[in-house]
């Protein structure tokens, strides 16, 4: 199982104090995008201070115009409010969705908590329809818990 192999690699990246936080976050994006074939865009969004908006952090994949997302807008903005994972098997079924690329078929967003506060999220787009399972959710929750120790 790929997730079992990736978990220690995520830990190794997180604990590498030779790199800046953003470099480590980018390395995590690269690790996931490289090893999981249905992860085609992998990035982090973080809350902008006390403002009700998210700012794009490190990511890999096609550049996006959506570097600032207000709370409530799109899948990401909804997760900023709900504090819950959001799995979208088919993005065409979503009214409140921000399209970044026409190749994207599915999306998963998992929040990052620090001291119980939702401070950001990992966002993954897939070009494959309905690819995400509960195993992805558990793995990405692990990644977010690791990231929470950095920020
Ligand atoms: N699709 C997201 C926007 C971010 S991009 O996927 C990079 C959304 O609906 O919030």
From TrEMBL:
Alphabetical list of Gene3D superfamilies matching this protein: 3.30.450.40
Coiled-coil regions, chain positions: none
Domain GAF positions: 20-149
Domain of life: Bacteria
Full protein name: GAF domain-containing protein
Organism of provenance: Flaviramulus aquimarinus
């Amino acid at each position: 199982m790929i997730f079992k192999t990736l978990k220690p690699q995520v830990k190794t990246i997180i604990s590498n104090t030779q790199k800046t936080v953003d470099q480590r976050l980018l390395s995590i994006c690269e690790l996931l995008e490289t090893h999981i074939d249905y992860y085609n865009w992998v990035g982090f969004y973080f809350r902008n201070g006390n403002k009700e908006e998210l700012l794009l952090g490190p990511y890999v994949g096609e550049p996006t115009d959506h570097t600032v997302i207000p709370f409530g807008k799109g899948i990401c903005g909804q997760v900023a409010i709900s504090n819950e994972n959001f799995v979208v098997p088919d993005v065409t079924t979503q009214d409140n969705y921000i399209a970044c690329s026409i190749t994207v078929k599915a999306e998963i967003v998992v929040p990052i908590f620090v001291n119980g506060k939702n401070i950001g999220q990992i966002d993954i787009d897939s070009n494959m329809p309905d690819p995400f399972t509960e195993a992805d959710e558990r793995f990405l929750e692990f990644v977010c818990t690791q990231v929470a120790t950095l920020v």
